[in-house]
Amino acid sequence: MKEDKYELAQVGLGAMILFIGSLLAIASSAYVMIYQLEAITQTSQKTISVATNEAHTQIIYVGGWVDDAFDDYLIMIEYQSLGEDVITDDIAWVLWCELNGNMFRRMGFLGDPVGSAPQGTNGEMTTIWEVGGEIRIPDTLVSGKRYFVIVDGGVGTGNGVGANCGPEYIFDNNIPAYYSIYLPNGGYSTQEFRVNTFAVGESIT
User: Does the predicted model carry a pTM greater than 0.85?
Assistant: First the structure.
């Protein structure tokens, strides 16, 4: 009888140890699951925040005009962002058009000097400046502000060559031109240009 009780006690002690071990394992697993869930949640929130900022970072085309009697446009844009301001020199642009199966492209970065641009308050040829502000290239574009931009026709980079895709060119050939702005975070916007009446100061559509 004593041996039976001893064996039962051993079985009971073993079951208790097993039970306590199971509780510890369950508690440990729960802790790991909770930690992983918090980490996933934080990562998801961060990803959503970044995606939201990038999704709401954009350039809005406000209007455009024929700037000179040759190859320049003057356009107005608005920068909108939930994130940080963007450095002007990091914003790329492309002006292109197609005629008789031939593609013409003019490209550069906002703020690049152009010989036909107006002279700013600092003596530099200014291709972008804040609406209502001094004629001076801004270091960054600030969300909610509007800017005038000189868009030069032609092909290539720098001062370019020719007048391809400029106001007179697309008017004479009755074709559209397209202007795209590329933000450093990957966002971009494209605007179609059409000149119905070719004269300095006339609106482009």
Answer: no
